[in-house]
Here is the input.
Amino acid sequence: MVSTPSTLHGRTAIISGGSRGIGEAIAVRLARAGANVTLLAKTAEPHPKLPGTIYTAAQAIEEAGGAALPIVGDVRDDQQVADAVAQTVDRFGGVDIVVNNASALDLTATEQIDMKRYDLMQDINARGSFVLAKNAIPYLRKSDHAHVLTLSPPITLDPQWFDSIGTAYTVSKFSMTLVALGLARELAADGVASNTLWPRTTISTAAVRNILSEKLIERSRSTEIMSDAAYAILSKSPDTATGQCYIDDDVLAAEGVTDFSRYRTVDSDDDLELDFWMTRR
Here is the structure.
């Protein structure tokens, strides 16, 4: 049997915040398909509570069969973002995929949150997604398989979500989604797809462990469900998949996946913990 080359073989992706967790998992999944991956992240040195750096992630990408370009930078710095896109083009010849993964999380209520924390979330989550996509647009237009994928939730105005999630974080994440949907409309004529992806359940990451609860890990899914869903979306024709707010298990169910138990962090009959803005089906 002759194997069919992946749609993403030889394509170039730039991923923000890809030094660990979901971002790294997506990077490695794209690398397994033969993609080139630029990582733009701040983590050059290991953190005691957050294992992994941009360099260990780059090594994982190369071990998976892809080419890696690790760039230490901050999505809040316009020049560093522009330079990262320029370096990507110099190294790989263009940009086909942008993954807006970098994100800050703080669930503090409005009255208690420090405005520096509020600004941090806005600058990383919403503005960071905007500026990375903005700088990549000229090169995405030249690609015949251009995608922007933003890791943010579908927008729901049900007031119950503000009870536990908080206004500040909600505003920042919904703003990311508005960026994605705006780009889908704005770039439709250029053949550039823009979508969002969000998990139905909590995902086993250092953020969940350190910020939310260690106990949630046993009721979470692994990062692989997000990376497999991202791969499925990014493999689609930009003409047929744009302007959508995808949920990870819905994406995979549409691809024919029926058994999701392999994505469980531990073998357990306990109910999975739903992530923010999600309800049971």
